[in-house]
Amino acid sequence: MPRLKTWKVCALIWMLPLALLACASEPELTPAVTSSTVCASTPPDMLGPYYKPDAPRREEVGQGYVLRGVVRSSVDCASVPEAQIEIWMAGPDGEYADEYRATLFADEQGAYHFESHFPPPYAGRPSHHHLRLSAPGYQTLVTQHYPQEGTVEAVFDLVLVPAP
Description:
This protein is mainly β. It contains 2 helices and 8 strands, in the order ααββββββββ.
């Protein structure tokens, strides 16, 4: 008997309660990123008053919190290799300083990895990392990552929009 495609099994949900279980257990339900997939762009966020260009090239400014992800294109979800990622954040004392700034680059698959201390909240702002991304052929993106209290790592995929 031929195997039903996942979408056909899922379409049976309304007619047969057992189909819901079959659909939920199908490993193919996790959408694969393909060249025909469109990714939602990462929402921009404020630059803030503490941005300084030319941060040192490094992937670590402390220990205890790991931020990682993949830089992708909004057009087809393809990875964006060698994207430049500038990160700056407040130190453990809530103050911005050069030792909490970094420039890193996504690898050939668009992946990046950054380690720091858990950013402290300050002056009514929640814990956050500032990020500024740039890559040839794409609009520069300024955004922020807001880690959840009590976590030691997060995956923050970043989706860039092609330049007009």
